[in-house]
Design goal:
2 copies of one chain form a homodimer. Chain A is built from 10 helices and 9 strands. With 321 residues, chain A is α+β, with helices and mostly antiparallel strands. The model of chain A has no long low-confidence stretch (mean pLDDT 95).
Chain lengths: 321, 321
């Protein structure tokens, strides 16, 4: 849960005068997102989310993130729309932080995703990939294969403090990916962080995606691989092929995977597991005791990575190939 | 900020079926209240607050608190209204906690209250006292004069760890109140915790009171004295007589104080300062480092208590007497 920056009511009212969304009726700090401070606003015109970008967000990336949401929403892809100031700006400043207001997206993220949610997600992801095609800004994926070794190095050899033997296992994987990571896959804008808490449903129908603050340009199938890990493993680490099949089938019905993408799915999923293993290991090492936000468990990523190491065909994910 | 209990989306959807407020559109844990977990819900029928009562709330008191809100709201006093289940119950159970849903009250609490806010508050408080007259449940004030010495004793002689010399100062006050606390004042239902974060405004007009979880029966003027301390001292400890005058004048225009109440105002204010000094001292001693909720500073209550010790007439608060 996260409200890092307290907002003064008078400063917020003054900030809202820059917009054309009526007067402020209420605002509540909400326990959502771990990087930034979020408030739910009610104004005369409706409900909105106010985000104050905290120090882990690179301000230079905000035009990409906000521009992408604006681009997608303008083409009826369901996601929050940045509200423009009367001046036309999407980004302002409040309480000493870069700040933006986006439309409020109704919906609930599923605490226990079912195959039907995975099917909805797959179709939504394919639509997002297609809708993102003609977005004209680009942002390199800082957390793709070339970023993993530098990220690992910032753990300062302390990976074994988290899980015994982890350092050696990670190093072996890094070497493997350096030699084998595919580079010729169809690429475009990916969300790159579509965990269940970023995907909303109303009555089990997808109502939209939120939190585009890791979005970037990369292989489209890598986004799908992230979802495979984030949605299709049970709490006990077991892979649920029904969920994976539902997700992949509904994705490919809208955007078919080519031969290279199909072949790359296992290594993509294995790489995605390493990517989250690395950031979680880093957070685990660097989160002080008693911190407001409890770091996520790196172990589940390790289990997933090991699972994908043994996969030789995308058939293991429920695809008919 | 406070979300102590995580709510599962499916359990919440099932819980909402007990009510007649439509389907769930969204729910967000909000950073409001320090005792209980609060969620802002959007349903087909509108906005609501879901509260899960955590262990510091005595379940036996909930019919009083919820009944009072229901009584006040039914007479158009602006406060959240408990939503009845189809069965007629106000109180249910969710995630292993007693739980209730109340209507969402629009409004913003003023971070820097002005005299105009104090005037609105005074009028609202008088209205609440009048509207509460015919509420038929009663609840003793556990934090009134007879509760202070037991509360102080739970600090186990550690008051001096918080502020040097505090123990002796508190003990002197306890003796003074034992001998001088008035017992013949008009009494009724009081809110007992009307700090600025419990009083909402829309465009500087009172939109209502929230958080009735300290409400009880006690001297009405004691409630006013609590507000005097909570609203009329500046951050530097200075008493702002303009704010006090605005509050007291607008209160007495609606509910005049009798001679005994006027005379009692200084000792009531002094006692209210001690009451919050004691609970804050207790919390200060008993809050572990790095806790989610930072304890409030007891020092400001001490400053207020000392101020009222020197007051001999309610004229010091801006009243023409």
């Amino acid at each position: 849960m996260a409200v890092y920056t307290e907002v003064d009511d008078q400063a917020l009212s003054a900030f809202l005068e820059l917009y054309d969304i009526g007067g402020l009726l209420s605002f509540k700090g909400i326990a959502e997102g771990v990087e930034n401070s979020n408030y739910l606003l009610h104004t005369d015109a409706g409900s909105y989310i106010l985000t104050l970008y905290e120090k882990r967000t690179n301000v230079e990336d905000l035009p990409f993130f906000l521009g992408l949401m604006n681009h997608l929403a303008a083409q009826d892809f369901p996601c929050p729309t940045p509200i423009l100031q009367k001046s036309g700006n999407m980004l302002g400043s409040l309480a000493g932080r870069p700040a933006a207001i986006v439309s409020f997206l109704e919906g609930i993220w599923p605490r226990k995703p079912q195959p039907k949610h995975c099917g909805e997600l797959g179709a939504g992801l394919a639509r997002m990939h297609i809708t993102g095609r003609d977005f004209d800004l680009t942002r390199q994926n800082a957390l793709s294969v070339s970023g993993w070794r530098p990220l690992y190095n910032t753990c300062n050899g302390r990976a074994d403090d988290v899980i015994a033997g982890l350092a050696q296992e990670i190093e072996k994987e890094l070497d493997f990916f350096d030699a084998n990571w595919p580079s010729d896959l169809p690429s475009g804008v990916i969300h790159a962080d579509l965990f269940p808490d970023n995907v909303f449903f109303v009555q089990n129908k997808l109502s939209g995606f939120i939190d585009f603050y890791f979005a970037c340009n990369d292989a489209l199938v890598y986004d799908l691989a992230i979802c495979l890990n984030a949605w299709c493993f049970e709490y006990d680490g077991a892979f649920n092929i029904s969920k994976a099949r539902a997700m992949l089938q509904s994705y490919t019905r809208i955007r078919p995977l080519n031969v290279q993408e199909l072949a790359a799915l296992p290594i993509m999923a294995r790489g995605s597991a390493l990517r989250f293993l690395l950031t979680r290991t880093y957070d685990w090492i660097n989160t002080p005791e008693g911190a407001l936000v409890r770091p996520k468990d790196p172990k589940e990523c390790l289990t997933q990575m090991r699972f994908h190491q043994d996969v030789t065909s995308p058939a293991a994910y429920g695809l008919d190939v």
